[in-house]
Amino acid sequence: MRILFLGDIVGEPGRKAVINHIADIKRQHQIDFCIVNGENSAGGRGITPKIAKNLFSAGVQVITTGDHVWDQKELIDYLPEQPNLLRPINYQPGTPGNGSVILETEQGKVAVINAQGRTFMNPPLENPFTVVETEVTRLREEEGVKMIFLDFHAETTSESIAMGFHLDGMVSAVVGTHTHVQTADERLLPKGTAHLTDAGMCGPEISVLGRNVESVVWRFKSGLPTRFPVAKGPVRLCGMIVEINPETGAAIHVERYNRLLTQAESQT
Question: What is the mean pLDDT of the chain?
């Protein structure tokens, strides 16, 4: 089982690039299952039902989110209708939507979990280490799922790395999102879990985390509030590809995905 995960999609440039190129990426890398983090895909803040539907139509199986999941109000009513669009699992019980989903594939069941870290994150949610461990146990023992993928939306590298080791041998892969900067530490942990501290983003290359450079620099220089419009120009697609043994759920190969599109490719 080969799973493609693409990091935080930022604004129109990021989502158009993903929608237009995901079929080619899946074909070139023999991808069986695709997950994307779409929490910044609507103008850089949140995701809308229309954008989610377009991503699913393009070939995405599951969309994860994070701390911007509620930025678009219409998503509150849409989340319960679309189980393949996740919000962090460590919200209080009764929160609209789901934090995990199980999909049947030709190679067996695949479960995807979305969780949010607590260090420097707002709002502070329930402890992701205990909540995710409980869900992983349920998926393995009650649902018989062996292939489990976690998108851990966290601010600090230490929390992301700790989560990887915490779940080593219990899940197939743990990948971090949120910082928009891809880390160069992809590896197979000792007990068979693939880990990447942060997948990076799918957004404009000449930007500050996908936002207009001049606006962000001015904010740092002046200390005054300003808008951060999504940048324009060529898009870089970042993420991770992990190969999993369906019989055991253990990862057998992991690699970063990092591709800078040309200006023409970014616009088509």
Answer: 97
Q: State which H helix or E strand residue 135 sits in.
A: helix 128-141
Quick one: which of 70, 3, 54 has its CA closest to 33?
Answer: 3
Size of the chain, expressed as the number of residues it contains: 268
> Catalytic pick from 21, 68, 178, 180?
68
Range of the domain at 224: 2-267
pLDDT in tens, 135-159: 999 999 999 999 999 999 999 999 9
180 is catalytic: no
**Inter-residue contact 203 to 191 (CB < 8 Å):** no
Report the C-alpha gap between 183 and 86 in whole angstroms.
Answer: 24
Integer angstrom CA distances of residue 66 from 115, 117, 137, 218, 239: 8, 9, 22, 27, 16
- Give the CATH number for residue 87: 3.60.21.10
